[in-house]
Every structure is written in C-alpha cells, then in structure tokens.
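subagent[fold] <- orchestrator: predict structure for attached chain, return tokens only, no commentary.
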Amino acid sequence: MTPEQRLADAFVALAASTAGGSSGVPGPLSVLACRAPALLNIPAATVVFAPADYDAARAAGSDPQVSRLEHEAIGWREGPGHDCHRAGTGPWSQTALTSRPIRQRWPHYTPRALTLGYTHVVTLPLREHAVTRGVLTLLSGAQHAFPPATLVLSRSLADFTAVIMERAREADRSRTLAAQLEQALASRVVIEQAKGVIATRRAVPLDEAFELLRKHARSRQRPLKDVALEVIEGRADPGLTDR
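subagent[fold] -> orchestrator:
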C-alpha cells in the first residue's frame, strides 16, 4: 500500500469510527493513535481527549506501554499532553526529553518516557472552533527534530479528528435529548390517561382529577408516573380512584 493509500485509508477509518450511532470518543482515539506511527514514520503516538475536565480525559496509545504512560500522565497532571492541553498552543510544540529543564518540569513523565526509549516529543492540539479539545503527541527516539512534512500531516490528522469527535459528541447529546423527550412524552400520556380514569370514576373535572393524583403521589413520596400507571392498570389505592 502506497503512503497516499494509507493516508486515505486512515481518514476513512477515522470517519467510520463514529458512524452507525456508535459512541464518538473511543473509536477515533484508537484509530488515530494506532495509525499515526505508520503514516508519520514515527515510533509511537498517543491521543488525549478532554473537552471539559482534564481529570476525566480519555486517552489511547499506539501500543500498551505508551498508552499506560499517557493514562498515568493524566493522573500526574504533567507531560507534553497535559501542558499542551492547558496552554492550547499551536500549531505544534517540540520538546527534547533529555534537557534538564524538562526533567524538572515533568519529574514523573520524563524518566518513564526515556526508559521506553523516547527522547523527543511533539504535541499538536486537537482544536475545534479555536477550542482545544485534546492533544496528539508524537514520540521519537531520534536525535533530531521531526521533519516539517510530518508535522504538517500531523496537523491535518489532528484537525480532522477534532472535528469528527466533536460532531460525534453533538450526535450523542442529540440522541440523549431525544430519549429524554420520548420518555417525558410517554410519562405525560400515562398521566393524562390516569386523569381521565379518576375524573370519570369520581365525577370530577380533569383539573381536579390531576390535583388529586398529584397530591396522592406527593403525600406518599412516589413518582407521579408510577401512581398514574397504577390507576390505569386498576392497582391504585381505592381512596384515590373511588368516590
């Protein structure tokens, strides 16, 4: 497979990772982290997605060791991913892990990364509408900077991933809202039916029937919908439904 074909395949895989109503976060993270090394000709990569609270960030790595390192870095609140996310810098930032200031800045992350054989990292924020949602971190053991072409391509991958992940989150929110509205509508239908039963059996107006239903549920500290369902099914307290 040519480099162009691998790149096209990666973009297709990223887009497909949120298709079919699947949850929008884990899929793209794994696809980007696992495919980045081959596409960019680098040893390893990690991705962090933290649209709100960084403590609740999700992470993925191209192999179990760097994945574990990134998850631990989230807990340490240090490392290139954490700093890039906090600063929201762009388009990229390169760091030599062998430098003394970096060892002091990241006392947990740096020795672990060096033990794994990585001496240089570059971070690219996952940005959507100028807001940093996460970070793509590239790791290398090379003693030289990442080639400009690698960084340009990395920027495109990071931008594309940020967009599709945000769209997937929006879709998740829409599905959640639709489910809540559907549940609310179903509850309303049950309550309206119960009002009709009480109004008919007690020969009272619908407004008064609803007030009786509401007071009965409140006095017993029970959900209104549950009491209404019992009325419809004939299991309610006779004191509520009979004259």
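orchestrator: received. Logging for downstream: Strands lie at 44-49, 58-61, 93-96, 120-128, 131-140. The longest helix spans residues 148-202.
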